[in-house]
């Protein structure tokens, strides 16, 4: 089975731990990584790529020191190695301009406001994982119990 990563980025440790807890079911099959900065995320992505593993989803906060979530997700979108990586902006402080910039430049796949409902974060993440696996041509069978069935059905038609 291929190693597929979900990376969560937030400068607040409590928020990261909350996201990790909400994604705990997915961590049975996927590797959930926690990063406290954009720089840490980018370094981890380089390491994952060097191992020929997959970065399927990046969930990023918007307001962080040094580099915003939109800046991070834009950098990821512009890196050809991660063109299929799905991006979710998770924030309570993004302005409308930030959101528009994220959609236009970071090729944002989804947006979720803080405070989120765990089941919504789980569903969105499953949908993004499903899209990534199908788009990359990865055998979905070993992961099927952790993917979103309606999304999988639509993509396989």
Automatic annotation (TrEMBL):
Residues carrying 4-aspartylphosphate: 61
S-adenosyl-L-methionine listed as a keyword: no
Keywords, comma-separated and alphabetical: Phosphoprotein
InterPro entries: Bact_response_regulator, CheY-like_superfamily, Sig_transdc_resp-reg_receiver
Keyword match Phosphoprotein: yes
SUPFAM superfamilies: CheY-like
Cross-referenced PROSITE patterns: RESPONSE_REGULATORY
Domain Response regulatory: from-to ranges: 5-129
Biological processes annotated in GO: phosphorelay signal transduction system
Protein name, per record: Response regulator
Organismal lineage: Bacteria, Pseudomonadati, Pseudomonadota, Gammaproteobacteria, Alteromonadales
């Amino acid at each position: 089975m291929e190693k597929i990563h979900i990376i969560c980025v937030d400068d607040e440790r409590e928020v990261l731990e909350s996201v990790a807890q909400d994604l705990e079911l997915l961590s049975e099959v996927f590797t959930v990584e926690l990063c406290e900065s954009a720089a840490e995320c980018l370094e981890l992505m380089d390491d994952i790529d060097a191992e020929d593993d997959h970065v399927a989803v990046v969930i990023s906060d918007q307001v962080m020191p040094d580099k915003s979530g939109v800046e991070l997700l834009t950098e990821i979108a512009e890196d050809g190695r991660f063109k299929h990586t799905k991006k979710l902006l998770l924030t309570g402080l993004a302005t409308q301009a930030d959101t528009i910039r994220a959609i236009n430049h970071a090729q944002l796949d989804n947006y979720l406001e803080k405070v989120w409902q765990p089941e919504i974060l789980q569903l969105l993440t499953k949908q993004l994982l499903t899209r990534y696996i199908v788009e990359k041509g990865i055998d979905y069978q070993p992961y099927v119990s952790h993917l979103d069935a309606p999304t999988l059905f639509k993509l396989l038609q």
